[in-house]
Write a structure and sequence with these properties.
Distance between the termini: 27 Å
Strand content: 35-45%
Helix content: 10-25%
Radius of gyration: 24 Å
Number of strands: 23
Order of helices and strands: HEEEEEEHEHEEEEEEEEEEEEEEEEH
Largest sheet: 7 strands, antiparallel
Amino acid sequence: MKCIKLFVGLLALLLAVSSSTFAQDPGWPRKLEKPGGTVIAYQPQVDEWKDFTDITWRQAFQVTPTGGKQVIGAATFTGTTNVDKDKHMVVIFGIKVIHTNFPSLDEAASAKMDQLFKSFVPEVVTISLERVVAYMPKPESVSAVNIKNDPPFIFVNYSPAILLSVDGEPVLAAIPNTKLKFVVNTQWAVFLDTSKSQYYLVAGPRWLTAPDLHGPWSAATTLPKDMEKLPKDPQWADLKKVIPLPAQSNGPIPKVFYSTVPAEVILFDGKPVYAKIPQTQLLYATNTDNPFFLYSPTNEYYYLAAGRWFRSQDMQGKWTFVLPQLEPERAFFR
């Protein structure tokens, strides 16, 4: 049932998005050219998108070796996805070819063509979310699954901060014709200058830099020379506003919280300030945009994240999932 709801939710999202999103990827067929020949890849067919993370798909293609004849083939791939919800794009990385088939070739020629074809497979493929959903099989029946209510890791800060969230351990992909790599599995623009082993992060109108993703982060005063090439690539067109390096802001440098697991940041404008909710024993924080409450009889904190309530006696400590049928939690759900 949960998988059906997720699928229906994706379809609902598609109905709300204009067709202009399709212009953000080149569609199909896609043509790849190298000194060894040319590959034309046709529209894929998704076999499985497990938890909307691990994807398996099939694809037909044409391979034309340099000076040779065109050969028709098909392949099965696996990869890991990262969904950019704001841009409605899916980035596929860690791509592996698990099977190829060339019906017109014998075993020896197929092995040679397999090797040539695999040399064309890119490290990263970008496809619009709309296309991926359209290529998925429609579910007929889905087994029930258990819903996990594990709390995210919750950071609390009293001044400007950002959450540099990476989906698992960082995956780096090289940017052609540069000494730069970018972190694929995050929605932030994060780059590594391999010549200096230095990271660069776009945080609003400014650049931050650090020797490690864990920090410490500071304001960047210069950018690697290869950064100038990025705005020419449609994938990085949004960086035109911050390349070259803009004038430094006088505002505070945001603190960067780095996490490779689900996490949230509660930001207060200074120390928490509370106001009482009439006819209850609840207080709510007035100097944060987050739904944050204090239950005065027990001095317990309550926080709403992704439609779920979490509770802690120490806002900087361990948080637990709240069951709405328990006291005093009923006050939140009346």
